[in-house]
Amino acid sequence: MKQPIRMKESGQIKVVLHTKNDRMEQQPTRDEKPFEWSNSNEHAVLKSIENELDALIGLDELKKMIREIYAWIYINRKREASGLKSGSQVLHMMFKGNPGTGKTTVARIIGRLFFEMKVLSKGHLIEAERADLVGEYIGHTAQKTRDLIKKAMGGILFIDEAYSLGRGGEKDFGKEAIDTLVKHMEDKQNDFILILAGYPREMDYFFTLNPGLQSRFPFVFQFPDYEPDQLMEIAEKIAAEKQYQLSPEAKIKMREHFMFIKEKNTSSFSNGRYVRNLIEKAMRSHAVRLLKESNYHYQELMLIRSCDISY
């Protein structure tokens, strides 16, 4: 018979189970427990953000990291109130992921979190791409970039496909945009947060062009492609939000298609964006079918069948 022996070691509780022939050891960790403390009214901000994050499919590591950022900011302020040293941390971020993996959505949520925690005075999101930063002549790029940063003050400047700034080489005006961004990241690091986003491989190459740039982004978030089951979950969620349902046959057809897409491993696949377009196309086909059938029964108005799904 196994006899549990409880031992205290280095501040942790160890549970050692003895048997006749073996010894098994298990060390419970805090990571295995849910964030019960976030239910407190004192952490209503985190609870609200958690609800938004939990509505997103996948991204478990990212959700964990955002909770860690919240905890760090919160405890740092408690330390300051107790007369302890309060450290400062740069909050600029890098998002690596293919299209449709939730990068822009997460950036908006982070903006709201930092606004509620008074890290940012506005918490708004300014979205930009190469054309918004790069000008046509010397000096024009720096001015355009400064103007964008000015608009982002108190919030987040989100630059998608940021690697495009390094495509043209040394003589390209994109380098001028990078230099201007770097300067303001240092001078105004407490006034705005810069998030650079793009395809993983291209972003890795981009930072080899400017080795000093990567170290300025302490937070690197990975946005992996969705698996077929996750894509299916997204499809059902989008349909439910629009008060539609997928028939069992429609679900099978859609899941098989997602599996086929994943097997092809195409780099142009846009993940959640692709699923949304697929559902909206099915809704239009569904409407045409019901119109032809003059079938306006309540259940049929909601039910998307396999014949409504096309690729």
Automatic annotation (TrEMBL):
Keywords: ATP-binding, Nucleotide-binding. SMART domains: AAA. InterPro entries: AAA+_ATPase (IPR003593), AAA_lid_6 (IPR041627), ATPase_AAA_core (IPR003959), CbxX/CfxQ (IPR000641), CbxX/CfxQ_RuBisCO_ESX (IPR050773), P-loop_NTPase (IPR027417), Spore_V_K (IPR014232). Residues 89-227 form the AAA+ ATPase domain. Gene3D superfamilies: 1.10.8.60, P-loop containing nucleotide triphosphate hydrolases (3.40.50.300). Belongs to the CbxX/CfxQ family. This is Stage V sporulation protein K. It comes from Bacillus kandeliae.
